[in-house]
Design goal:
heterotrimer; A alpha+beta (435); B mainly alpha (297); C mainly alpha (297); A: 435 residues; six-stranded mixed beta sheet; 19 helices; globular; B: 297 residues; 15 helices; 2 strands; flat
Chain lengths: 435, 297, 297
């Protein structure tokens, strides 16, 4: 009995200790609260790019340079998770624990919503002061500026994009050569190549139906029959959106047709983007239509010769500015935050971004050494010049991503006709519009 | 027992009740309050009265997804409880007695292990196993010459829900197993010995001793796992994201999606309220039956 | 009383066989059962093997050979990178602190609640129980916003204590239910005997009730620890600073990114389950060393 009672006592003590230890919470590195006069200042910085990504490499350089040019300032960086920021940003920014500067998701449901609620600092004066508007192409600016309703493409800057992203076709040169198939330059050649591969029993396009890839094929097909007014209507509610218009009808029927013809595998329904990417890198598919975010990974891991080309026969393609720097309203060091943003826009940091396989907003192809990275930047510059970035299909309506996944899956496994799919998309789109 | 006697036990309930009010009751009341508003999780909520509930009543997809919920109750509650019961009995009665308790506990540990794996990771691994090309499940079928059975398990709407159920059973059996085995330790071994001497078969002993003796545990496991299945959005989300084409959609998906993806917190709160109320009614009915059945003994 | 109702012939007060009780015969059929269980156990473990494989692969190996291939050699950089990247040591301390405290206090709370409900049979216990169970059946996402608001008011936002308090309540609901069901069937004569001996309620709880319910209590301890360890949503929301975060939130850092790093995810999963596995295995010994009702005389 005695020993048992001792056991209980030990447990009780442990629990009490646990509670007290936990109550203290994390030590916050001390007094950056009052930000007091001569004391060393701390710039609390959050971002969620993985350490070996082009962004993180470039931003690390920016942190070093910033600290060198600001003696007495320490940058306290915390790596966050995408999901964490996605779910908790409104709560964190509404508390005293907000960072001084952070990376945040672009879009109406994220940065737009928080700007509307007054949780983000209006950066417009800083933009003209530092000349960021001259560096960032107009096509990329859209995601940084929001109007009073929190809809992007507005008049006030609430974020500064540091990099950009866009989609293109990654292709396996070896497979093309081995099968004697010409790398396509026009849409006719593209479908001819698809047909030739399918004829040899090779599924030409890697796809992932359970994630973003499927809907991006669909949207790209629609874009190839659309113009910038169409995009603006769809993304910025500037006009009526009809999913039974020629562009969407063409996209849905063509997509379903391609699955039937074997250009896109029927069993890609349940695959995730990672599965498709992995399959492409291991050489199973000759082509994959996806974002520049794959660039670094493919460059590092693919064991074959590869290249990229823009979706043939389309003026528009998916892409946009990347995530943005925002300065929370509760930031205690706004001036330092602005200066840090400026540091990431400098040519040196932007070049590092480019050389690490990223797409910097202020790209200068001349300074990039790697030929493939150079091509990546040149393609981006060409897109920006013709205003070709058409954003993503899931942006206009919160939760539309899942609807698109689900409807695209129906197209792939043939459980709904293109017409029905488009009607359902219309319904979800209309009911999700800002009220 | 006299009333005065019963009152004397109230102090034991006090700490639990105080914490419960602070952490559950008040937040739930706030949640109900939020459900009468349109709110994006930040700023001032707009009062819209019963608007969310009216919308929910007409949300056909929400109510249709309840059908999948029944499948999940099987996959996460009934089947694991049944398998767990048989396993617990076999491990205690056969393995424990004939090969020693150590063998039994090693086996129990192996079967319990899936409960340790974070669900996100479990989801990724299972989607590798069930992948249509190069997946372990299909490779295994091909290796034993059953190529014709190879299948896109999670991609075909006809098999997706079944595949999810297999994963759920795998994930879930350990929980009833451990509880039932601990319950069986309360049972007086002499009951079994007497029955054995009387020549009762394993099945008879299982039916008449095991089942009756750990009836409290069986009730608890059934109710708790059924509740878990109502909250199983994360599992579904990592495996199929409700797909293909909504074939594995469940009600809790709606709540979650509205809270965090559409940031339509008011609507999410109304779904959560409805789900909670339905569950409370079912749970109360279940516990009433349980009390009756236990009192009969 | 439960024990007397068993259908098998009631054993007369027979001398209890000592610990050196004979092991039952191993007939061929018991080997068949053992073999079947071993096969089952191995099947349950396959996903873990896959996780371990991928944790030990280089990203290049994973990309070219796929997730199911056997690693060429031991590549430990994934484990090391993850450890330093998220400051895993600190996360480990946080998780142990949070889960450990929740387990101990949660069990204590469950015992108190269950004593009042199961043995004390306080008036309206059905509804008290259903209320307490609400902690379990409320979708967690509906608690997020209210709890955030309350803890911010109380100055506990971004402290580990906030998470501990929440999970003490949520987890103890299950234990309250399980224990009060088990205790409702508690042999009354034992309590009466103790009372006649002059023990008060507090003493009866600790000297009679707790020792008898010990197998169940240990199961609860294990479950609370593991469940709290794997909790994701509420720690994610409440623990903002990296130095307060838990292991499962750290695993989440790798999820939801557009590029999933499969090898590092596996490495993190492996690191994430080792502590809970160790915890389970340590308590596994106590789990099987239960005391039977009859042993207390």
């Amino acid at each position: 009995m005695f020993s048992k009672r001792k056991g209980v006592a030990v447990l009780a003590t442990l629990a009490a200790l646990g509670m007290t230890a936990a109550a203290c919470g994390g030590d916050d590195g001390g007094g950056n609260d009052s930000g007091g006069g001569t004391q060393a200042k701390v710039l609390k910085l959050w971002h969620y790019e993985s350490p070996d990504s082009a962004m993180a490499i470039a931003w690390n350089q920016a942190i070093r340079e910033f600290q060198a040019s600001h003696p007495g300032v320490t940058v306290k960086f915390e790596e966050k998770g995408f999901e964490q920021i996605q779910k908790t940003a409104p709560m964190v920014l509404n508390s005293k624990d907000a960072p001084d500067i952070m990376e945040y998701n672009k879009g109406n449901a994220t940065a737009g919503l928080l700007s509307k609620q007054g949780l983000l600092t209006d950066l417009t004066p800083q933009v003209s002061k530092h000349g960021w508007d001259r560096v960032i192409p107009a096509n990329v600016q859209t995601i940084a500026k929001y109007d009073a309703r929190g809809v992007m493409g507005g008049d006030k800057w609430y974020g500064i994009p540091n990099y950009a992203e866009y989609l293109q076709v990654f292709y396996n040169k070896d497979t093309f050569e081995k099968n004697n198939i010409k790398v396509p330059a026009t849409f006719e050649e593209f479908t001819a190549a698809l047909d030739a591969f399918a004829g040899k029993g090779i599924t030409p396009l890697a796809n992932a139906g359970a994630e973003y890839m499927g809907q991006q094929y669909l949207y790209q097909l629609a874009l190839s029959k659309a113009d910038s007014t169409w995009v603006s209507n769809y993304e910025r509610y500037t006009g009526k959106v009809d999913f039974h218009d020629p562009a969407w009808t063409y996209a849905a029927t063509t997509f379903a047709d391609w699955v039937k013809k074997g250009y896109i595998a029927k069993n890609s329904v349940s695959l995730k983007a990672e599965d498709a990417g992995q399959a492409f890198i291991s050489g199973k598919f000759p082509m994959m239509f996806s974002g520049s975010w794959w660039f670094g990974r493919i460059a590092k891991e693919a064991k074959f010769d590869w290249g990229t080309f823009a979706w043939p026969g389309s003026q528009l393609t998916l892409g946009s500015g990347g995530n943005i720097w925002v300065v929370p309203q509760g930031s205690k060091n706004k001036d330092l935050a602005y200066e840090f943003i400026d540091a990431t826009m400098r040519q040196g940091v932007q070049n590092t971004l480019a050389n690490s396989g990223g797409v910097p907003v202020a790209a200068n192809a001349a300074t990039v050494s790697d030929p493939k990275a150079k091509e990546l930047i040149q393609n981006y510059n060409a897109l920006v010049q013709r205003n070709g970035l058409a954003y993503y299909p899931d942006w206009p309506v919160p939760g539309f991503y899942d609807t698109l996944v689900s409807q695209t899956q129906k197209l792939i496994n043939g459980s709904a006709s293109p017409d029905k799919v488009l009607s359902d998309l219309q319904k979800a789109y209309d009911s999700g519009l800002p009220k | 027992m006299k009333t005065r006697d019963r009152l004397a036990y109230l102090p034991y309930l006090a700490p639990g009740m105080v914490l419960f009010i602070g952490v559950i009751a008040i937040p739930f009341a706030m949640n109900i309050g939020i459900s009468f508003t349109r709110w994006a999780g930040v700023g001032t909520p707009d009062w819209i009265g019963l608007g969310n509930y009216r919308e929910l009543a007409e949300d056909s997809e929400f109510w249709a997804s309840f059908r999948h919920q029944f499948a999940l109750v099987f996959g996460m509650s009934l089947i694991p409880a049944a398998i767990g019961l048989v396993l617990a009995s076999v491990l205690t009665e056969v393995i424990g007695k004939r090969f020693g308790p150590r063998t039994a506990s090693v086996l129990r540990a192996c079967i319990y292990l899936p409960q340790l794996l974070p669900i996100v990771v479990a989801g990724i691994v299972w989607s590798w196993i069930m992948a249509p090309e190069g997946g372990a499940a299909n490779a295994l079928l091909e290796a034993v010459g059953l190529d014709s059975l190879a299948h896109d398990w999670l991609g075909d709407p006809k098999t997706a829900m079944w595949s999810v159920m297999v994963v759920m059973v795998w994930f879930q059996i350990g929980f009833p197993l451990v509880i039932f085995m601990s319950g069986l330790q309360r049972v007086d071994p002499s009951l079994y010995e007497a029955a054995e001497i009387d020549g009762a078969s394993w099945w008879r002993r299982f039916w008449h001793i095991t089942l009756t003796q750990i009836r409290p545990e069986i009730f608890v496991v059934l109710l708790i796992t059924a509740i878990y299945s109502l909250k199983s959005f994360p599992q579904i989300y990592v495996l199929t994201k409700g797909g293909p084409g909504g074939a594995t959609n469940v009600p809790s998906y709606y709540s979650y999606q509205n809270f965090f993806e559409k940031t339509d917190v008011g609507y999410g709160a109304s779904i959560a309220t409805v789900l909670t109320l339905i569950t409370i009614v079912l749970a109360a009915g279940f516990i009433r039956v349980q009390n009756k059945s236990l009192e009969e003994q | 009383m439960t024990l007397l109702k068993a259908p098998a012939k009631q054993p007369a007060v027979r001398p209890r066989p000592g610990p050196a009780r004979r092991r039952a015969r191993r007939d061929p059929s018991s080997y068949v059962v053992l073999a079947a269980l071993i096969v089952l156990a191995v099947m349950m473990l396959i996903p873990f093997v896959i996780v371990a494989f991928n944790a030990l692969k280089t990203p290049q190996e994973y990309s070219s050979n796929g997730p199911l291939s056997v690693p060429d050699g031991l590549y430990l950089d994934g484990l090391k990178d993850f450890w330093t990247r998220v400051d895993y040591g600190q996360k480990l301390i946080n998780s142990v602190l949070i889960s450990g405290t929740v387990a101990i206090v949660g069990v204590f709370l469950s015992v108190l609640n269950a004593y009042a409900l199961g043995i004390g049979k306080v008036r309206g216990r059905l509804w008290v129980l259903v209320l307490i169970l609400m902690a379990n059946l409320l979708p967690q996402e509906s608690l997020v916003y209210p709890l955030y608001f309350l803890f911010k008011k109380a100055g506990l936002y971004d402290t580990r204590l906030s998470v501990i308090i929440v999970f003490i309540v949520i987890q103890s609901a299950f234990g309250t239910y399980l224990l009060s069901s088990v205790l409702a069937a508690f042999p009354r004569p034992l309590l009466e005997a103790a009372r006649i001996d002059g023990a008060n309620r507090w003493q009866i709880l600790w000297r009679i009730v707790v020792p008898i319910a010990r197998p169940t209590i240990i199961v609860l301890l294990v479950f609370y620890f593991i469940w709290t360890w794997n909790e994701f949503l509420i720690p994610l929301v409440m623990l903002v600073s990296n130095e307060n975060q838990t292991v499962s939130v750290a695993l989440g850092v790798l999820q939801g990114q557009r590029l999933m790093d499969a090898t590092m995810s596996s490495a993190s999963a492996l690191l994430g389950i080792v502590p809970t596995l160790a915890f389970f295995l340590i308590f596994q010994r106590t789990l099987s060393r239960g005391i039977t009702v009859g042993a207390i005389k």
